[in-house]
Every structure is written in structure tokens, then in C-alpha cells.
């Protein structure tokens, strides 16, 4: 490797360090945002679950055990450079997919999707660009699609696979969403079918929104943890390359001086 190549490599690694630092800053900001909206998402989820649990005595298909057609919604990341975050989610999902009899696969996040597809499970539906910055609109849109599939008899239950954060520890989670089979004291006034359906829609959307936020929080936390080490390794590489560059440069100068000395002697 000559000096020009070493110099070009140093420049390339320095640009990589800039990317690492930018990704770290972005992930810190988005992690703070996720933490700030999580309490509202939790309240939305718990209140919608409480409302729905009071309706489970209604004679509707949503509250009965059905077949074994399971829709798996696997929530991962659209980007890498976040440690083993995507790999953990993909491996956890694959364990479930391999034993499921009839399955439909919905993926959130292109990196996790590619890992699962490489193992032989092509997604039926892809929700791209929904993992990095989750929104209620995305959750409600996904919920509408799932409820339609459920009512058409194409799926019998929905399982969410995502990563939750306990302290600074990441835990893959598998949570059942439809049908909801919990029971508490029913309402005194029988609700209409439309009220029940809207309650189910709100519950599914709330569960999805909460899972998206927790998954996004896990991804950005993983990146915040991974980026300082990656930056440190890159800076060590720059130091090593700089030392190599100076050594090659010094050797070049020494050879030039020796050549000048030999010409003078002649």
C-alpha cells in the first residue's frame, strides 16, 4: 500500500466516523422522543384493552377461538449499525415461524425482513419506513388491514414480535393481539356491534403503536450503545493508518536523500 492509498483510506475512515457520530446523535434524539411518547402510548393501550375486555361477552367472532391461521407482525429496523438488535428479533421470529402451521408474515423494517427472507420466509406484506419513526397513523392503517383480513377469515389471530426495553436490557417479546380473550365484569348496557368493532380497532391500533414505539426505542438504544465502540475502533484505525502513512513518507524521504547523496558522490 503506497502513501496515496493510505491517505485515501484515512479520509474514508474519517468520513465513516462522521457517519457514526451523526447516527449516534440522531438515535439519542429519537430515543428521547420515544421515551417521551411512550407513557401516552401505554395509557392508550391499557385503556383500550380495558374497554374491550368488558365486551368479551358479545356474540362476535372476535371473542371466539378459531383456526390456526396466524399472522406474525415482526417489527425490526430499517437500518443496521445497531449491534445485534435486528438479529435478535429475526432469530426470535424464525423460531415461531418454523413451528407455525398456517402463517402469514408481515414485516416492519427492511433489515429484519432481509434476514428472515434469507432463512426462507418471504413476507406476505411489508411495512417499510415505519420502524424508525413510528406514528399513530401507521398503527391505525395496519390495524385496519389486519381487522379486514380477520373478518374475511384469512387469519385467526395476530402475534406481534418486537423488542422491549427493561432498563437498558433488550428482550424479544411475542404478544398475542387477536382474538382478545380476557374477561372482566361486562357493561350493564349491551353495546352495538359497531361500538364493539370500533373498540377492537382501537385496541389493535393501540397494541401496534405501543409495539412500534418500544421496538424503535430498542433499536435506537442499541445504536447508542454500539456507536461509541464503533467510533473508537475507527479512530484507532485512523491512528494506525496515520502511523503507517508517516512511516512510508519517512522512508520515501530517506530514499530520496540517499539518492541525492549518491549523485553528489559521483
Number of strands: 5
State the share of residues found in helices, binned by percent: 55-70%
Distance between the termini: 33 Å
Radius of gyration: 27 Å
**Would you give the CATH topology?**
Pyruvate Kinase, Chain: A, domain 1
The CATH architecture category equals 3-Layer(aba) Sandwich
Helix tally?
A: 5
> How many structural domains can be distinguished in the coordinates?
1
Major beta sheet, strand line-up: 3-2-1-4-5
The percentage of residues in β strands lies in 5-15%
CATH class: Alpha Beta
Outline type: elongated
Largest sheet: 5 strands, mixed
Quaternary state of this entry equals single chain
SSE pattern:
HEHEHEHEEH
Structural class given helices, strands, pairing?
Answer: alpha/beta
The residue ranges in which pLDDT falls below 50 over 5 or more consecutive positions are 179-188
Mean pLDDT level: 83
Determine the CATH superfamily. ATP synthase, F1 complex, gamma subunit
List keywords for this structure.
5 helices, alpha/beta, 5 strands, 266 residues, Pyruvate Kinase, Chain: A, domain 1
Q: What is this entry, summarized?
A:
The protein is α/β, with parallel strands linked by helices. It contains five helices and five strands; from the N terminus they run αβαβαβαββα.
Amino acid at each position: 500500500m503506497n502513501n496515496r492509498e493510505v491517505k485515501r483510506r484515512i479520509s474514508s475512515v474519517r468520513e465513516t466516523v462522521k457517519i457514526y457520530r451523526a447516527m449516534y446523535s440522531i438515535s439519542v434524539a429519537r430515543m428521547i422522543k420515544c421515551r417521551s411518547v411512550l407513557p401516552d402510548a401505554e395509557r392508550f393501550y391499557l385503556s383500550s384493552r380495558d374497554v374491550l375486555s368488558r365486551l368479551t361477552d358479545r356474540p362476535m367472532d372476535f371473542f371466539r377461538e378459531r383456526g390456526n391461521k396466524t399472522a406474525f407482525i415482526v417489527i425490526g429496523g430499517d437500518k443496521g449499525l445497531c449491534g445485534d438488535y435486528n438479529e435478535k428479533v429475526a432469530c426470535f421470529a424464525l423460531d415461531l415461524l418454523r413451528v407455525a402451521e398456517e402463517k402469514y408474515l408481515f414485516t416492519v423494517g427492511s433489515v429484519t425482513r432481509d434476514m428472515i427472507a434469507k432463512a426462507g420466509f418471504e413476507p406476505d406484506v411489508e411495512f417499510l419506513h415505519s420502524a424508525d419513526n413510528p406514528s399513530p397513523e401507521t398503527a391505525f392503517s395496519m390495524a385496519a388491514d389486519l381487522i379486514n383480513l380477520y373478518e374475511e377469515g384469512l387469519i385467526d389471530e395476530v402475534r406481534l414480535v418486537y423488542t422491549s426495553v427493561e432498563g437498558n436490557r433488550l428482550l424479544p417479546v411475542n404478544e398475542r393481539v387477536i382474538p382478545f380473550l380476557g374477561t372482566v365484569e361486562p357493561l350493564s348496557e349491551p353495546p352495538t356491534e359497531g361500538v364493539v368493532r370500533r373498540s377492537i380497532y382501537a385496541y389493535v391500533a393501540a397494541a401496534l403503536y405501543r409495539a412500534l414505539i418500544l421496538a424503535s426505542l430498542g433499536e435506537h438504544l442499541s445504536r447508542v450503545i454500539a456507536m461509541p465502540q464503533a467510533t473508537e475502533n475507527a479512530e484507532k484505525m485512523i491512528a494506525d493508518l496515520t502511523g503507517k502513512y508517516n512511516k512510508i513518507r519517512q522512508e520515501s524521504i530517506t530514499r530520496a536523500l540517499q539518492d541525492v547523496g549518491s549523485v553528489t558522490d559521483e
